[in-house]
Amino acid sequence: MKRALCVALILLLALLPGAVLAADSSVCFVAVNDDLLPLTSQAYTQGGQYYVPSSVFTQLRLYSTYHSGSSTLEMTSTSRQMYFNVATGETYDSDNNYYTSSAILRGSTVYVPVDFVCRQFGLSWSYIRGDGYGDVCRITDGSASLSNSLFMSAARPLMESRYNEYTGSTPSPGTDGGDVTEGNSVVFLSFQGLPSTDILTILDTYGVKATFFLTAQEIESNPNIVRRIVGEGHNVGALCSSNPAGEYAAFSESLWTVAHTVSVLVGSSSRDYDEACSNWANSNDMAFCDYNIDGVRSGDGVTAAQITSMLSAGRPWLIYVRLQCSLTTQSNLADIIGVLRSDCMILAACETGE
Question: What is the reported pLDDT for 66?
Answer without folding.
Answer: 93
